[in-house]
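Teaching note: in complex prediction, the entire set of molecules is handled at once rather than each chain in isolation. The prompt given to students was simply: 'Predict the structure of this complex.' The entities are:
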Amino acid sequence: MIARKAGAVLLHATLLGLGLLTVAPFVWMALSAFKTNAEINSLDQTLLPREWTIENFVNLQETFDILRLFSNSVLLSVTITSIVVYTSALAGFVLVKYEFRGRTAIFAFVLGTMMIPWAVTIIPRYTMFVAVGLQDSYLSLVIPAALSGFGIFMMRQSMGAVPDEVLEAARLDGASETYVFHRIVLPMSVNAISALSIFQFLWVWEDYLWPYLMINSPEKQVLAVGLTTFSGRYGTDYGGLFAATTLSIIPVIVVYVIFQRRFVAGAASAAVKG
Amino acid sequence: MTTIAPSGVPADTAPRRTRRRLHRGERSLRTTVVLLVVGFNAVLLVYPVVSALRGSFHRWNPLNGTYDPIGFENYATLFTDPVFWRTALNTVVFGTVVITLRVAVGLALACAIFARVTRWKTFFRTIFYLPTVTPLVAVAYVWKLAYHPQIGAVDTVLGLDINWLYDSTFALPAIMVMTVWKDFGYAVILFLAGLYAIPEETLEASVVDGCSPAQRFRFITLPLLAPMTVFVVVTSVIAYLQAYVQILVMTGGGPGRSTNLISFLIYEEAFVKYNFGYASAIAFVLFFCTALMTVVSFRLAGGRSLLKAAR
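The expected output is the structure of the full assembly:
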């Protein structure tokens, strides 16, 4: 009994210790955003700022129009995530609930698309989008992301669990397939949708190379790319960099907290029934 | 799958009618999806892959409009280039270490959180997943500063004086540590989901049969987690062969070539030097390796189960 108690205490101590290690970089970053540059560059480091200041955030807006980049990224991430969730759900539904010739072939093909590294397609895509004049337009960021192999795979795996009887019952009541999909299958897939939303939002939010290649106007640029130009232009403004990275992390955390209750169950649907 | 299908669901063994009547609106939905998937991938995937393959046999520079056929020269250059081999070795080391640690740490923590005595499960789940949902670009900057020899938190806390990112011995390990920290939460969440999907009765039966916890883990938990392990390993292989952001932000491939990874090499050749043909050749070698490793890890862990729809 005592041994078991000791074991439980040890287990919790270990988990808490590792948890601290995990959040330490975040805490350090967020606190450093409120330090003056002189203090960040001093050799005598403390965790808490000696004098709190918000000048880093104020300077960011003045030198860098961070709010602009920020809202660009939010707009893009929300748009692309909504599109991907919808197209993935629709394709997943058709691929798992309808039987037709070529269904397995299409699904295997979709799985195969996940294996193709960005490095293979990015050069021809770049030349394609430049050729049709979509450079510096958000269309060039939205179009290639509109359909996701990972998303289709995930939605298909989870929609397999929706009982056929429920769909049949609705059909007997005269529901059309669009009604069945939008009003029954979508609400029943809320776990998988939550998980996919978290993954997809982060992917768009942190995507660097494609927007960097496609978007030229500074006022259209996204936050991830902005961060890298920022560090080049103000090489030693660590305070500003800390403030900018802190800001760039917040929205993803917010999305995660909103969806997290259903997230684990949804992530499970990416694999198979154990 | 978390939901266990209720009994009474017709099993796959039920006789299939060859021609069933289509539901109202089924044909249009089906056509929409097939056209969407096929059309989208034809334009944005198949065509680019084919043109990249063609381009890899050319000297291709968009800046001065060069597009000359040179046969296998790009590939020949590639396989005799020590930089490429060094980079390939770095990528293998980086991938192996990071994936192993990700799976090991993820599995251990998932089991710890899953244990009956553990409290504040949601809290731990959230904490461990936080790094995974933060943008890599941002995280890479934070760690770059943390590794700074004078003002960085790492040396300050550990009381060391190592210039992590500018020392060819420590640079790649430093990046690996940061990558594991960033990504282990993904494995924790997926393994937890897998653990919750194991039927209660199975675990209880093993207790009744007098299994020790070690035996239960070895003969029940691990085999039942196999599909999830395949999924974690395969997605990790695909992801880490394409890692470049850490390198771009933290070291630029240096010092020397000690932290150069394949995808970063491709990025440099393509969009810094504009050698599109050569970059495409490297990309195809990467593609081939990705496909090969995916198939191997799939086979090893019996990934066939992933293809079956869970009903």
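Point out the following to students. Chain A touches chain B through 109 residues (CB under 8 Å). The first helix of chain A runs from residue 2 to 32.
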